[in-house]
Q: What sequence folds into this?
């Protein structure tokens, strides 16, 4: 069993997010500016392998799932099937978008912050960093 990701997390910084959005190919420059200026918050409730993740960033999205069980979620390009797994202490999502496979990984690192690493189908990565409230 990996670490507990539970908590209220507020966005503090981002690395390479514009390049990641551009690599997705479906996010126009105006929408990229809006996405870059957002300050999302995540509330993660974890009970073992069962999760409820609420993200507030302009609009609120909420996903409920169990690691190891595929579920449906929504991305910019529409509905996708998401496969959640543990990769060591990382909660990993894999899904196929219209442009190819995308990956999201969440983990709490030694500094106590939550790191959300996004990988576009072409391999472009972005890291979104959150601090616990």
A:
């Amino acid at each position: 069993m990996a670490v507990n990701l539970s908590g209220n997390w507020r966005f503090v910084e981002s690395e390479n997010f514009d390049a990641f959005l551009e690599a997705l190919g479906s996010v126009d420059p105006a929408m990229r500016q809006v996405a870059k200026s957002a300050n999302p918050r995540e509330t993660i409730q974890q009970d073992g392998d069962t999760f409820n993740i609420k993200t507030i960033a302009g609009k609120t999205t909420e996903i409920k799932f169990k690691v190891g069980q595929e579920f449906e979620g929504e991305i910019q390009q529409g509905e996708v099937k998401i496969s959640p797994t543990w990769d060591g202490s990382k909660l990993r999502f894999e899904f196929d978008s219209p442009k190819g496979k995308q990956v999201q990984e969440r983990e709490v690192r030694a500094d106590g912050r939550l790191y959300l690493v996004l990988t576009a189908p072409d391999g472009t990565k972005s890291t979104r960093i959150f601090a616990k409230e």
